[in-house]
Design a protein that fits this description.
431 residues, alpha/beta, UDP-N-acetylmuramoyl-L-alanine:D-glutamate ligase, Protein-Tyrosine Phosphatase, Chain A, 2 domains, eight-stranded mixed sheet, six-stranded mixed sheet, 16 helices
Length: 431
């Protein structure tokens, strides 16, 4: 089965190489119809946004689990293992299931002449797995954008848009308004939508889309009041939840928690989420690779920030985590990112920068990135990320800090080099 799984994963990735990104919903709809429309067999929460959507998805999923629900979670990309993308309960999908479902979907698609892209195929696989496990709810994170994202075939109980910022501009447009219009595509007629903290221009666009579709709008930061530091108190939408402690590090996670609580409040009756479950979920949620201290001496922090807004948020959190320690940076970034503003923010703050490569050919050539850091700090290029990390940690003094950021793919490689146990509670019991 190990060989079968490896072959299956290799075949799935071959779709990305062969077909790239091609945004249409028709292929996914046809494939799902051929499989009996598994995505219609459970209520869903649909979450989009430039930053924060993964954290909010993980929080909502954790609340559902704490409420005793057999809840599924679909996110992307993965950090270490492909199976992380598809979670049933608190466990990743099994490798044997990936093999079997890939075979089934591939057969159904081939017979009908449906040529799915990588992300489309994996989305169909996730929806099919959720149906097979008879989950009673699913939290679905958008892959890219929203309007034409493969996940946008669902009819969710509630849609969520966490933030709007500059990212994936070659697909979504160069203005916040155009990006908001694409992400606003997940707003469904008559279904409520939760907004996180949004720039004014983006908010106008999303409010207009919601009004056109008669979708009730809940602005999380306005309707839920937050008091305290730790523990926190949240009040609004008929909830008063005190003694809340967040498992995820960073002040920005308070805003994500507010968005997640507003989302949970809108589905609490249908999915039976209690204040106690919401509190327990926020305390137990796991979302690795975000402000994640993975080692000490030297302190090593990894963060998946991969756009200008994400780097700004990371920088605002650094003093509380690294203190006065000098920072040695390990950095890699994807070609499709506006990485020069990211470098401009980071370079003045670090004592040295090591530039590496990740996910070629999609990863940016390290030479121009290194050139952008020169003038601020000493720079070196180490092409292999694991080698770069090991070298950097050997050379860094015990009283310094190593920061790894720029790409979730880089974070994944680092977490692979620094493995840590992370056991879950297990999959939902089968009926």
């Amino acid at each position: 089965m190990v060989s079968e799984y490896s072959d299956t994963i290799a075949w799935l990735y071959s779709l990305e190489a062969a077909r790239g990104m091609d945004f249409k919903l028709e292929r996914v709809q046809l494939a799902l119809a051929a499989l009996g429309n598994p995505h219609r067999q459970y209520p869903c929460v649909h979450i989009a946004g430039t930053n924060g959507k993964g954290s909010v998805a993980a929080m909502v999923h954790a609340m559902l689990r704490a409420a005793g629900r057999c809840a599924a979670l679909y996110t992307s990309p993965h950090l270490i293992r492909f199976t992380e993308r598809i979670r049933i309960g608190d466990d990743d999908i099994g490798e044997s299931e990936v093999v079997e479902l890939t075979r089934e979907i591939r057969t159904a698609a081939t017979i009908r002449g449906i040529e799915l892209t990588f992300f489309e195929f994996v989305t169909v696989l996730a929806f099919s797995a959720f149906a097979q496990h008879r989950v009673d709810s699913a939290v679905i994170e958008v892959g890219l954008g929203g309007r034409l994202d493969a996940t946008n075939v669902i009819d969710p109980e509630v849609s969520v848009i966490t933030t709007i910022g500059h990212d994936h501009e070659q697909y979504l447009g160069s203005t916040l308004e155009s990006i908001a219009a694409e992400k606003g595509g997940i707003i469904k007629p008559g279904r409520p939508v939760v907004f996180g903290r949004l720039p004014a221009g983006a908010a106008v666009v999303l409010q207009r889309i919601a009004a056109e579709r008669n979708a009730p709008v809940v602005e999380a930061q306005r309707v839920i009041q937050v008091n305290g530091i730790s523990p926190l108190q949240f009040e609004g939408l008929g909830w008063a939840i005190g003694d809340v402690r967040l498992a995820l590090r960073g002040r920005y996670q308070v805003e994500n928690a507010t968005t997640a609580l507003a989302t949970a409040a809108l589905v609490r009756d249908r999915l039976r989420i209690t204040p106690a479950a919401a509190r327990a979920g926020l305390l137990s949620v796991r979302w690795p690779g975000r402000l994640d201290v993975v080692a000490t001496s030297p302190l090593t922090l990894v963060d998946g920030a991969h756009n200008e807004a994400g780097i700004a948020t990371l920088i605002s959190e650094l003093p509380a985590i690294v203190g006065p320690r000098p920072i040695h940076l390990l950095f890699a970034v994807m070609r499709d990112k506006r990485w020069r503003p990211m470098v401009a923010q980071l370079a003045p703050l670090v004592k040295s920068a090591t530039i590496t490569t990740v996910l070629p050919p999609r990863g940016e050539d390290p030479e121009p990135v290194a050139a952008a850091f020169r003038g601020y700090c000493p720079v070196e290029i180490v092409p292999d990320a694991a080698t770069a990390l090991a070298s950097l940690r050997r050379r860094a003094a015990p009283g310094s800090a190593v920061l790894v950021t720029g790409s979730l793919f880089l974070v994944g490689e680092v977490l692979t080099a620094l493995p840590r146990g992370d056991a879950g509670d297990g999959m939902c019991a089968q009926p």
